[in-house]
Amino acid sequence: MHHTTTGEKILRGVLITLALVFFLFPIFWILLMSFQTNAQILRIPPSLFFEPTLINYTSLITGELQTAAGSLKLEFMHNLWNSVILSTGSVLISLLLGVPAAYAFARYKFRFSEDIAFTLLSFKFAPPLLVLLPLTLYFQAIGLANTYIGLIWVYQLITLPLILWIVRGYFEDISPDIEHAYRIAGHSWAKTFMKISIPLARPGIAAAGLLSFIFAWNNFVFALVLASADKQPVTVGALAFVTASGIQYGQIAAAVVISITPTLALALFAQRYLVEGLSLGAVKG
Amino acid sequence: MTMLDLQRVTKRYGKDTVLDDISLSVDEGETVAIFGPSGAGKTVLLRLIAGMAEPEEGAILVNGEDLIDVAPENRAVGMAFQNFALFPHMSAFENIASPLEARRSTKDAVADGVHKIAKLLKIDHVLGHAPRELSNGQKQRTALARALVAAPRLLLLDDPLRNVDAKLRFEMRLELPRLLEGFGSTVLYVTQDYREAMALGNRIGVLIDGHFVQIGTPEDIYLTPTTIEVAELFGDPVINLFEGRVEKAGDGTTAAIGDAKLPLPTGYEDQVGQPVIFGIRPENIAKADDGTAGAIAAKVAALLPLNDRLVRLLVSDDGHEFYTSRDLGSEEAVGEGARLSVSAAPQDIILFERDSRRRIAPAR
Q1: What is the per-residue pLDDT for A282?
Q2: Cystine design at B186: which of A206, B3, B287, B311 (Cβ 3.0–4.6 Å)?
Q3: Statement: B2-226 belongs to CATH 3.40.50.1820
């Protein structure tokens, strides 16, 4: 056994603290900013001590922003709702389509299977702006522009390849003998898929779902071009804080805090599924 | 009554022919050991019967019904996998229960069946454990219980003792035949261990390179192997092979091996003058009385004690190395470097054609 000396323990503590400060400080600063007025934020020199205010949060939630130039309507809560619909919808559809597809690519060698899988992945290589202009024209022609369905469809470019390729790897890691054993025990193909394949790939499905949710949530450019005000997610909606009377740093900070909350909650929830898979010793190696 | 009937089954993977035109029929209640070196196609054969793969040619009949196009879940077979293939997210109980649940048994009937088989296999105390918490021996018994629990008409065991330690393997080799008999199932037992094959099989099918080289009782295969290859696969230490020729001696014939001449049984008169290979198992070579005519004169090169047997490596005067294996204490100890003459009884000498390496049966 390797024994760590006191010196090593202290050094490790210091290094971990440095890393945490480096990575968490911006988030911490944003959290502080969200409880300050614009004037407090912009004072020089900046100070850690201030009278906390909830004005930023209340104005976001009520949708009324009081500035020097007068009152301003804010669509933030509506944007947040749009983000939830768009991200959840795209991830759900991607899971519904991607998980069975991933299983097919993992288990069956059919004609052009590798080519199809690679083509799906290649959607992620394409620069979004290159795709967007023709897509906008098509969507306007067929009436999908500025609709949830159209946006969710385009979001599949982000979420589907990710889910397909991550989950495929997990399916490939499941020994086919385990599935065979279940079928020989007398269960149908569909039941085997639901009771054996899906549960064993669950850590992968959770990871892929979470990652693609984050990517969908953080997407900016698709929504910027394809959605108008009433369908905009928070990423695009945040532009509204750049107002004629200045940049509303306090509201931006509060908006950031609110908008990372769902992703953070989801990550914490998915964590137990992510870890679960690591401890399953399926087949003797 | 024939239960399982394989008719001219051929399986290819791409250009590889894994099973080439093989046939085998297994009677109800019989245990047939499928024995062969790795890569011979043993596991593939079980997979075809279980429905995990389809043969390119031939038919697989169970009780006269062709299984081709019958889904695996409807074939009513039980199978234990070499790698156990337990469901890692289910407890041992749920693993064993799965075949019963598929048959829509009631909850009580399922629990009843699982506990009965678990007791029989001595794993009733670990039923609540997940597979990862089981020892290898317990995993293997769980896999076996899962295969047996629904009393399948046909039981396929794919080298189930491969991944357990030597002591447990020995115990199970003694326990399994009794267990299988109790179930009355028809069993195909795949193994790479000739001792397992001989201990468990009513008959043994020797599968080499996708062909059944010989199918017969353990005695048949041990005493009258059809080829040198089969003879070499059964027995430890391996059978001794001597090149020589059949010579006439009075009324009968002798095996001329170098200067030695060992009497042969009757029936080989028409082989006189032919160059052949003589196979003599190590346990059948005994020290000859001094002055025995035609005995093989040799020197002891090494002594290799093996449990209750003494294995000796001898070198004959014409430079041929061979093994003898005797019960400890059955012969006076002869140390390394000592000289002795040895011989074998006529009926213990097996003749093989030199070129085809096939056994020559004595003429009747």
Answers
A1: 40
A2: B3
A3: no
Asked if the Cβ–Cβ distance from B89 to A199 is below 8 Å, we say yes
pLDDT in tens, A89-112: 999 999 999 999 999 999 988 888
Q: Where are the alpha helices (DSSP H) in chain B?
A: 42-50, 92-102, 107-120, 136-148, 166-183, 194-200, 218-223, 228-233
Residue B302: strand, helix, or coil: strand
A200 CB near a chain B CB, below 8 Å? Answer: yes
Residue of A100, A124, A121, A127 lying closest to A205 (CA atoms): A100
Chain segment B307-326, per-residue pLDDT in tens:
788 889 999 888 889 999 98
| pLDDT < 70 stretches in chain A | 1-2, 65-72, 275-285
Residue B237, preceding bond cis, omega within 30 degrees?
A: yes
* Contact of A253 with A59, CB cutoff 8 Å: no
> Given its phi and psi angles, is residue A89 left (phi above 0), alpha (psi -120 to 50 degrees) or beta?
alpha
* CB contacts < 8 A (A, B): 81
**In this complex, is the C-beta atom of B230 within 8 Å of any C-beta atom belonging to chain A?**
no
For chain A, the structural domain boundaries read: 6-73, 76-279
Nearest CA in chain A to B136: A284
Which residue of A276, A280, A284 is the best one to mutate when testing the B interface, meaning the one whose CB has the most B CBs within 10 A? A284
Task: Confirm or reject CATH 1.10.3720.10 for domain A76-279, answering yes or no.
Answer: yes
The beta-carbon neighbor of A183 closest among B72, B78, B86 is B72
Q: Residue B172's pLDDT is what? A: 83
Sequence ranges of the domains in chain B: 2-226, 240-353
Architecture of the B240-353 domain: Beta Barrel (2.40)
ipTM: 0.85
Chain A: closest CA distance from residue B73 (Å): 4
Contact residues on chain B for A189, CB-CB shorter than 8 A: 71
Q: What is the pLDDT of residue A228?
A: 80
* Burial group, residue A62, by CB count within 10 angstroms (0-12, 13-18, 19+): exposed
